[in-house]
Sequence to fold (248 residues):
Amino acid sequence: MRKKIVAGNWKMNGSYELINSLVPALAEEAKQSQAEILVCPPSLFLGDVRRQAGERLLVGAQNCHEAESGAFTGEVSTGMLAELQLSHVLVGHSERRAIYGETDALIAQKTKAAIAAGLVAVLCVGETLEERENGRTLDVVLGQVKAVVEQLELADWSKLVVAYEPVWAIGTGKTASSDQAQEVHRAIREALAGFSQEHADAMRILYGGSVKAANAEELFACPDIDGGLVGGASLNVDEFISICRAAN
Ligand code: 13P
Fold:
């Protein structure tokens, strides 16, 4: 049985005020939750959030650099994230692919760097509206997944989580229906089974894109959906806790 994960991606939002109201409440929630609860605040706040998170609330970064160290002004390495006692890092978020031009090859390098540092990489994949309308959803999504997993050893898969986030559903209020999401999640798991059935069965595949309290339960009830990666709704304590409970 795969343990569910509910992850909050704050993106470039948040403040000490938000941290002080949200993190203690989530730390409490995490103590009794059957799901893993993860928060990914902006990198500037990672140390403070980690200190307030207690033992059960997981804290991750939204991005990392692929190199160990060096002359990369403004960047943060996976070793630094590990030193902060973080457990996860998002890689390949569609905003990083679209706005910062991150390629599959770069995302594979970041994933390897994250795993080498002992972090769990949350690999984000998803199609644009145009790609969906052209019938290319599975081509695009499975291509993004394979580009990374082909570069990994099977032993690394325990340090990988996949997040399917259709780009057209991010921040738009348009959630994929549970059938649409389940179809893609199943296809991802089948593609992974081409490498190893056992490892594919163990892989957590999260859904992201306008997840909220009102739709979380239906999404999380799908057989191949193992939790959510939540943007906007993760900034509201009541809403996010309701989503966490929907995963129980
Ligand atoms: P929203 O939940 O705001 O649609 O964002 C989803 C997302 O991009 C999480 O990484």
The pocket of 1,3-dihydroxyacetonephosphate is lined by residues 9, 93, 165, 170-171, 208-211, 229-233 (CB under 6 Å).
